[in-house]
Target: Cystinosin
Amino acid sequence: MHLTYLSVIFFLFLLINFTTQDTSVISFQPSSISIVTGENKSVNIRLLKSDLTSPISLEFLYDGKLDNVHGYINSVPNITFTNETIDDRSQFITVTGRRQGHLVLTAQSSQINISSLVDFLLIDIARSHVLNIFIQIVGWIYFLAWSVSFYPQIILNFRRRSVIGLNFDFLSLNILGHTSYAVFNIVLYTSSKVQQQYFAQHPHGVLPVLLNDVSFIYELNFFQ
Model:
């Protein structure tokens, strides 16, 4: 049961990722960053196009728009790749947080076709690092409290050497529910493509899945 449960989750994860693949022509490294207001962070942009015969200029889009309307970060200056040196295939930009929110930074160019589905940078701007740490602590406390709640019934069944009173309809529905919960958490936490779609629908939202949510999936799988 455990192997089947994990296999279904893994298969669905691969299916979602491979069916949304496009060809990248530029690469943001890293592809997602978290900063606080007033903080600067460098991001490397690498040109993946090999046949560079003329300079390629990039201008940046903020949530798909050329104008930096919301002002979550300072506007990023345009950059140009040339074929003079191999180092010019990689350039750094500086991202500076201005106000709390979420932003998808993409680029466009008149010389090459850049896909916003695969060539993008996810930016999460928070108020403070202290608040982020507090959220993590509360999440792990929740994870531990919910995990411990499963043990009393397991211990009782072990002592009685019986599962009398256990409703197998409930168990079946629980497996179905936890499988759906696992697919949601794993895909949203690990797939940058799905995260981009989420923030496109909820530009001012917060990613609802953290590491403790993904960890809890394995705890649930242990008790099934």
Residues 2-17+130-223 form one domain.
